[in-house]
Amino acid sequence: MKNNCVFCAIAAGEIPSFKVFEDENIFAFLDINPFSKGHVLVIPKEHSANLIETSDETLSSLMVAVKKVALGVKKALGCAGFNILQNNGEAAGQTVMHIHFHIVPRYSSGPIIFENGKCEMSELEELAAKIRSSI
User: Fold this and answer.
1) 2-134: CATH homologous superfamily?
2) Sheet holding 26-30: strands in order across?
3) What's the pTM value of the predicted model, to 2 decimals?
4) Catalytic residue among 47, 98, 100, 102, which?
5) Mind listing the pLDDT tens digit for each residue in 25-62?
6) Could you confirm whether 100 is annotated as catalytic?
């Protein structure tokens, strides 16, 4: 595993994921412990631990992709809105030390966060396909 980083391994295809978007620099996939239905993580393929360590060029590509994926999530799932989250360092709640943005769909009804944070794998595959087709 490159850099001993799970997100680098996911982007390289070494660990399976539910991909929703990929280009030469960016990879986006469904979170397997989602805050809400359709929760996506957007990462650069190039490893950097946090916002401060990420090059301006990578950060620019990353933000364009976040916008593109967020639009796809909104179109595909019909959510009322979405949150964009990005944590830096353990004290801020970052658990994987590879910069990533969360796109968390918000719906008019239902809880803000799933109670158990789990989805069935078959549901995740269907969601990923639906989002991919909307990007």
Assistant:
1) HIT-like (3.30.428.10)
2) 19-22, 26-30, 40-44, 101-106, 81-85
3) 0.93
4) 100
5) 999 999 998 999 999 999 999 999 999 999 999 999 99
6) yes
